[in-house]
Task: inverse folding
């Protein structure tokens, strides 16, 4: 199985993503420069965290014009799994592959923390390895992670079950206190309609090995591997 | 043109570059003529305290700098390099950005971080961790809160964006830093031995390529600014603005470039900009350099040659390329969206020659520039020491509610949790962080090996003020102890020596003695000095800061599985103290906070320290020790409380002050003590290991319950202790005046 990690100027979780995909998940994981236009042959495309283009204009706003984003759009249409984490989520929003936008964190500060996540669905290619409602712990590290969309879009996301992860406390309750950035409905990760594009603010690649304090993020890799092994590759 | 002879030169000109009349006379003497304006500026920068170490060199030279692990020793390059095994090396260095931070806290703290990162990747190392050691004036004053919040914001802004985790540091509050906060940033980098790169300019005809930001007027005179005693009275023009996005591109591009053989050397542009960068590189290579400064890209019109040479615009690197490979180097930078210019070449004439559109504006033998004047002043013990070292405890009433005192200490900004600060720092990017901020030392795994490194920063200005030599030694010992508490063996230090004005006899004494104390501890503990930085003239409102050497300690864990942390683990585990139970109250946070007294002569027995550390290390490596936490600010009681809070489980102590004072027993800060816990059935093993290492072990209590019980009648609920500790600093920093 082949994965690629798109590298923009200012990406800074690219090496982490590549490490988790290759050392933990078992992919052959390549870096792909933002100027590349050929993404054929990749079974998974990852858009990593960081400050692409220095967050100029808005987080992710410049990256969406990168040459590599054309083939990312095509791959999304073909149904290739695409995972955007942190700045990668912001890029997917700016690119229109996912609905909504990110506001400054409600506390107006950059926040790093290990947060609790409740898995909302397990019948997806990203969460099939999880138990229903499984609580996961992963780090967040962002200043603009306050997910916002208009009420109709939120209703659509909720109605179609496209919220995969919500910030929660240790009991799994999605309380305001457990919400680190003010996101509507404690939303931490959403998918597109087809379910092959996931954007999430928490970092699964930083929670993939016990030595780093937890390996709940590896559930996402396990789910993807199971999915890719079940379908013909290519 | 004005008369530039030594007798006639205007004082204002010399003041502007912080040189005195004698130094100017020496320049005219060396040159055999009065220098040009540009030449004088170059001398001023390189003979500044910041670049030339005029007052510190005679003492720095006495520090131990060698061991088997040292690959690049202090002073040879931008930072020291240390072997950590498996063919890997760590490059690390700490540096100050104090004076600008008193003027523009956010940007200055940010560029302080940016500057130290460049020192690391210029050596060929990938930066993997940042630390920030910060000192502020009391937080009940709005100005100090403004500075603190701005500095914390700037540190986070830069590190977060550039994608290097901030995994440790300190926040200390004391009146002596009012108006002169300290911002010390440390960067740690990792590389294979064979990737070590020199900041050297060699090979006549090899091109000099300047890459990164365009050059502006910002920071002209930054290097001499660090010698101005009251920064707030100075202008804002000397402060630089950082661009971490550009720095990130430089890191990636330069590391990629170093994988080719198109590069001879690489040097960052820091204090005194192009001047010090080019001169130091040529000095190292024993060569000369010719600079065509009209080729330097500008961000502003009408820059004079003087300004181009002395600009401290951030995010610039000087690359010495192999002749004929220029196009390849420039193409690589282009790919990363970085602008680069060929601005000169290496020569064999031993001079720095500066040309502006073909006209020579400066030509100076490099040996003159790298040989700044040196001042060794008499070291005379100042009178204040007798006064402050006489601690008469008879005049200090013991608090009648020691439980309340514990809570007060736990909530004090110097002891309380720093979570509210470090939660604004990305601590886990890079996926190496095993233990982050809040630990005794940060632990980072080394991918592809079983190893880890542990790093801590430490420095207690009050201790050094009270007892310069003992305090200096204690700073090294405590930093080493912090590293040992994770299970790592300390192997080397970097230091940032923050002091007042060296021309003040008391300050010079503090400096000389602290350096001697640091050297003694480094010798005894086997941790040579790999480099660092001296920051003098830290004073404001006619008050010198407490002498504050900050030690950055590097340790190595050969097997990451044999590590420890500070958290108590299980009910009924035995709590024991390695090292003496008795303590004095000299220089303690307790005396300062509760009684408003700064007195005593905090010292250290380095042999005892070495034995205690060896015993603790043996205990952790064999898996006998389940938690380890060093006794520092707030003493034994705070150490036990912190281990309890970290583990979410209480503790009951069974100790006795005998005929001594209960406050000294609980809150004294005598050195060389580590609180450990162990399973009851491993206690005998621990006792044996302490015996073998010649360290005493005292059983002091048991883990368990939901209370912290220190002495009969002296106890607090764990939850209450946790609350005091969690919110003490956050409450002090919270303000409408701060920057979010």
Result:
């Amino acid at each position: 199985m082949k994965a690629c990690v798109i590298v923009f100027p200012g990406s800074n979780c690219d090496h982490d993503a590549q490490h988790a995909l290759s050392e933990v998940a078992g992919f052959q994981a390549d870096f792909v420069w933002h100027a590349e236009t050929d993404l054929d042959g990749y079974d998974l495309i990852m858009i990593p965290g960081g400050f692409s283009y220095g967050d100029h204009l808005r987080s992710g706003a410049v990256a969406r014009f990168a040459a590599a984003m054309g083939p990312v759009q095509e791959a999304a249409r073909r149904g290739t799994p695409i995972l955007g984490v942190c700045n990668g989520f912001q890029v997917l929003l700016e690119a229109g592959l996912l609905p909504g936008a990110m506001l400054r964190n409600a506390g107006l500060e950059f926040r790093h923390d290990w947060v609790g996540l409740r898995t909302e669905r397990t019948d997806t290619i990203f969460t099939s390895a999880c138990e229903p409602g499984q609580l996961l712990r992963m780090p967040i590290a962002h200043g603009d992670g306050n997910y916002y969309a208009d009420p109709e879009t939120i209703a659509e996301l909720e109605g179609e079950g496209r919220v995969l992860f919500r910030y929660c406390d240790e009991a799994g309750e999605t309380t305001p206190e457990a919400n680190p950035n003010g996101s509507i409905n404690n939303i931490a990760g959403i998918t597109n309609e087809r379910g092959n594009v996931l954007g999430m603010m928490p970092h699964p690649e930083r929670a993939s090995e016990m030595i780093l304090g937890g390996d709940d993020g590896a559930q996402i890799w396990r789910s993807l591997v199971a999915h890719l092994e079940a379908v013909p590759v290519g | 043109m004005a008369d530039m002879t030594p007798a006639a030169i205007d004082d204002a000109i010399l003041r502007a570059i912080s040189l005195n009349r004698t130094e100017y006379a020496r320049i005219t003497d060396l040159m055999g003529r009065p220098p040009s304006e540009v030449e004088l500026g170059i001398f001023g920068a390189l003979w500044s305290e910041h670049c030339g170490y005029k007052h510190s060199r005679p003492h720095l030279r006495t520090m131990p700098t060698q061991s088997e692990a040292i690959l690049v020793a202090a002073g040879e390059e931008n930072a020291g390099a240390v072997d950590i095994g498996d063919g890997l090396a760590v490059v690390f260095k700490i540096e100050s950005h104090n004076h600008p931070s008193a003027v523009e806290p956010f940007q200055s703290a940010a560029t302080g971080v940016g500057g130290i990162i460049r020192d690391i990747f210029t050596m060929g190392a990938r930066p993997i961790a940042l630390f920030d050691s910060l000192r502020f004036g009391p937080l009940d004053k709005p100005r100090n809160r403004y500075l603190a919040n701005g500095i914390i914001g700037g540190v986070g802004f830069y590190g977060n964006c550039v994608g290097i985790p901030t995994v440790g540091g300190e926040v200390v509050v004391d009146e002596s830093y009012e108006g002169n906060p300290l911002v010390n940033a440390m960067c740690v980098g990792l590389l294979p031995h064979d990737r070590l790169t020199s900041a050297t300019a060699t090979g006549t005809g090899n091109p000099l390529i300047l890459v990164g930001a365009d050059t502006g007027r910002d920071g002209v005179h930054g290097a001499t600014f660090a010698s101005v005693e009251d920064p707030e009275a100075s202008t804002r023009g000397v402060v630089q603005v950082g661009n971490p996005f550009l720095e990130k591109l430089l890191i990636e591009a330069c590391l990629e470039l170093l994988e080719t053989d198109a590069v001879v050397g690489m040097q960052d542009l820091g204090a005194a900009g192009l001047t010090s960068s080019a001169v130091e590189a040529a000095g190292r290579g024993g060569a000369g350099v010719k600079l065509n400064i009209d080729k330097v890209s500008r961000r502003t019109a009408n820059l004079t040659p003087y300004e181009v040479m002395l600009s401290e615009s951030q995010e610039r690197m000087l690359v010495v390329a192999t002749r004929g490979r220029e196009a390849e180097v420039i193409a690589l930078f282009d790919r990363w969206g970085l602008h680069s210019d060929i601005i000169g070449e290496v020569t064999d004439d031993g001079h720095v020659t500066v040309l502006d559109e073909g006209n020579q504006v400066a030509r100076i033998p490099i040996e003159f520039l790298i040989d700044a004047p040196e001042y060794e002043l008499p070291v005379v013990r100042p009178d204040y020491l007798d006064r402050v070292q006489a601690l008469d405890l008879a005049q200090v009433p013991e608090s009648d509610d020691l439980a309340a005192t514990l809570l007060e200490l736990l909530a004090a900004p110097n002891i309380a949790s720093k979570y509210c600060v470090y939660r604004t720092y990305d601590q886990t990017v890079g996926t190496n962080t095993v233990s982050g901020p809040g630990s005794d030392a940060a632990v980072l795994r080394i991918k592809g090996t079983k190893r880890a490194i542990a790093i801590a920063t430490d420095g207690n200005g009050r201790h050094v003020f009270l007892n310069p030599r003992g305090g200096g030694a204690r700073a090294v010992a405590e930093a080493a102890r912090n590293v040992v508490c994770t299970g790592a063996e300390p192997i080397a230090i970097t230091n940032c020596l923050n002091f007042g004005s060296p021309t003040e006899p008391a300050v010079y004494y503090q400096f000389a003695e602290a350096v001697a104390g640091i050297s003694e501890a480094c010798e005894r503990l086997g941790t040579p000095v790999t480099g660092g930085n001296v920051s003098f003239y830290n004073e404001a409102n006619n008050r010198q800061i407490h002498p504050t050497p900050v030690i950055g300690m590097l340790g190595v864990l050969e097997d990451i599985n044999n590590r420890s942390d500070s958290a108590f683990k299980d009910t009924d585990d035995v709590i024991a103290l390695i090292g003496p139970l008795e303590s004095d109250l000299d220089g303690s946070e307790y005396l300062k906070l509760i009684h408003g007294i700064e007195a005593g002569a905090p010292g250290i027995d380095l042999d005892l320290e070495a034995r205690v550390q060896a015993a603790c290390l043996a205990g952790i490596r064999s898996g006998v020790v389940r938690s380890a936490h060093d006794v520092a600010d707030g003493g034994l009681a705070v150490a036990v409380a912190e281990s309890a809070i970290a583990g979410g489980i209480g503790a009951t102590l069974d100790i006795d002050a005998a005929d001594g004072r209960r406050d000294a027993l609980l809150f004294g800060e005598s050195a060389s003590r580590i609180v450990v816990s162990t399973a009851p059935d491993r206690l005998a093993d621990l006792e044996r290991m302490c015996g073998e290492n010649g360290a005493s072990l005292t059983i002091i209590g048991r883990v368990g319950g939901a209370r912290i019980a220190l002495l009969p009648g002296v106890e607090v609920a764990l939850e209450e202790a946790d609350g005091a500790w969690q919110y003490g600093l956050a409450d002090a920093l919270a303000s409408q005046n701060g920057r979010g």
Remarks:
- The two ends of chain A are 9 Å apart (CA to CA).
- Residues 2-230 of chain A form a domain with the Rossmann fold fold (CATH 3.40.50.880).
- The longest helix of chain A spans residues 218-230.
- The helical segments of chain A are 14-24, 69-78, 87-94, 151-159, 218-230.
